Amino acid sequence: MAIGAVEHRLAARLALRAEQIAKCSNPQSIANILNALTKLEEVAGALSTEGWQELTSVAVRLSDSMKAKEISNTLDALHKLDAAALHVSADGWQYLMESVDYLLGQLGDEDLCSILTALSRLDAARSAVSKTMWRRIALNVEKSADFLDARRVAITLNALPKLDVARSFITAEGWQRIAATVERCSADLSEAGIANTLNALSKLSDAATAISSTGWRSLCASVERFSKSMNAQGINNTLKALSKLSAASSIMTPKGWQHLIETAGRRLDGMDPRGVASTLVALSRLITTTQNIPAEAVRQFDAAVGRVTPAMNANCLASAISTLSKLDSDATMNIITLGSWQQLATAFTLRLQQMEPRAFVTTLNSLSKMDTEAVTLLVEDWLPFAVAAEKLSLKMSAQDIANALNALSKFDALAAAISSSGWRHLAAVSVRTSREMNATEISNTLNALSKLKSAALTISRDGWQRLAAAAERTAPEMTEQNIANTLNALSKMDAAWSAISLDGWRLLIMTVERTSESMTPQAIAITLHALSKLDTKIAAVPFTSWRVLTEAALRKWPEMDSQNIQIMCRALSKMKSNSEAVSPELRARVEAAVKPKSAQ
Q1: What is the pLDDT of residues 169-206, one digit of tens each?
Q2: Closest to 345 measured CA to CA, from 402, 404, 401, 385
Q3: Burial 11-47 (b: 16+ CB within 10 A, else e)
Q4: How far from the centroid of its chain's Cα atoms is residue 406's Cα?
Q5: What CA–CA distance (Å, rounded) separates 461 from 386?
Q6: Cβ neighbours of 418 (radius 10 Å)
Q7: Are 85 and 122 in contact (CB under 8 A)?
Q8: Quick count: other Cβ atoms within 10 Å of Cβ 58?
Q9: If exposure means fewest CB atoms within 10 Å of the residue's CB, which of 80, 182, 199, 212 is most exposed?
């Protein structure tokens, strides 16, 4: 008989035996059985549904009699055995967490680590933890921090990013103690430990801030020690963390970077599409245009992109392209060649019909921010994108349509490919979702419509009134950029500004006054120019508002570039009834700016 058949029969017998003895188990034996099943995959796979139900119900029932080690082993097993965790009811998790809470004061460091890890991976268990218990867990973490070894501090840090409520109860002194332990143990961290520790620190700002420069140097030394031998997961976690931790990445030596780049190239073959994409994104954030990337590494990066691109789903492709497109184009091209970029773009185009609106719009918005010449090299035919935009518009949310219109307003080639029915659909969605739009979304929508006449012309009077109502409703929450964009858009569209009520104009003007202190030079120039055009139409800009804006312009004058000065000068030249709001000093600067150089 084949060995495999013997093993299968043995596993089935052991599984049956586990089911039989579960009913008469004591707290220690049920914890041991579950713990053993985490290491015997064949046996766990042979257990019946009834068997799992029996094991978990016994574990829950006996949890209030368990000792610290037994309860930690039980939770450790449950987070590793999906089939077991699925059979624990909401009441069961509640009972288990009450038992854990009772034993918190008796937990050893290893037990605490096991429970933290289990809670970080079991959503149902986290939901059953009370606020008081989270506070007690945080206190235990602080108390144990001084005594953790390298392995346990890495485990603790790795669990904390998912334990939001517990984190909120850790004091500043607690984070200092955790950071001090990280520094003390940094030289003893294992290969997996250093990768997990950095990954956790990139998500725990309180802990990362508490690490000293000496501590970062020690952590980076550990990274460099393992830089040649890291496995795929380790190199991926390390690079992602370093791309977010400038305090660490700035300390890495050129030799250390070289080793990490070479290791990343070798390990890409063992990564899935998401891993390849996130690794390349992290490298692109870290590598400057002046760094010399080994030709062999670039070849490996290109080969990995070629291997995984056909297997990438629509959302993974969208994520990769969106993130890479936000980076410096030269740095990105250092990592992968134009050919790889084109592969990603082609695959993305082929999967457009499978896209969710959010993924499509996010990618479109990101591409709209790329250099026009670079985008032209990537996308030859915009018609599939136009068809997708029209089709997906029916499922777009307020955020989606605002971002979609914003992207279309920057993409002449794509906008030209949208059909008249497509524009009607997109405009209709913007009107339909306007009631859910926040300040940024309505601001972006109006700003985009002011540039997209094909869309704006399809909006009815009722449609403009609904968009105007959204602008009025969100005015109190608008930022300085929101209000500048909104007024700029309204000044260009008669149908839009005429739909704003008198009370609405008061709210918008009040927002101008409220945000003037924090306005950028560009926002001041745009706002002044928009109001100078609107003032003759609505007569709603009071003297005090002009005074506030012109004073802001005077404060920001040293920061204004020539384009902003020209815009502002045109605006001030149109001020008639409120011209006295311009101070003599500002007027002198304006006159000097517009005076021909020969006359100066």
Answers
A1: 999 999 999 999 999 999 999 999 999 999 999 999 99
A2: 385
A3: bbebbeebbeebeebebeebbbbbbebbeeeebbebb
A4: 20
A5: 26
A6: 23
A7: yes
A8: 21
A9: 212
Question: What's the one-letter identity of residue 550?
Answer: T
- CA-based end-to-end distance of the chain: 103
pLDDT digits (tens, 9 = 90+) for 28-54: 999 999 999 998 888 888 888 888 999
Residue 469 buriedness (CB in 10 A; 0-12 / 13-18 / 19+)? middle
370 DSSP 8-state letter: S
Average the pLDDT over 69-93 and give the result: 93
The amino acid at residue 55 is L
Please report the DSSP string for 471-508 in residue order.
Answer: HHHHGGG--HHHHHHHHHHHHH-HHHHTTS-HHHHHHH
Total residue count of the chain as it appears in this document: 600
Instruction: Tell me the CA distances in angstroms from 142 to 137, 156, 178, 184, 494, one per residue in order.
Output: 9, 11, 7, 16, 62
CA torsion 67→69→74→80, rounded to 10°?
170
Spell out a b/e string for 74-98, using b for 16 or more CB atoms within 10 Å of the CB, else e: bbbbbbbbebbbebbeeebbbbbbb
Q: How far is it, in rounded angstroms, from Cα 449 to Cα 554? A: 31
- Taking 90 as the threshold, does the pLDDT of residue 412 lie above it? no
Tracing tokens 């992109």 back to the chain, one arrives at 305
Indicate whether this model's pTM tops 0.70.
no
Neighbours of 323 (CB within 10 A): 20
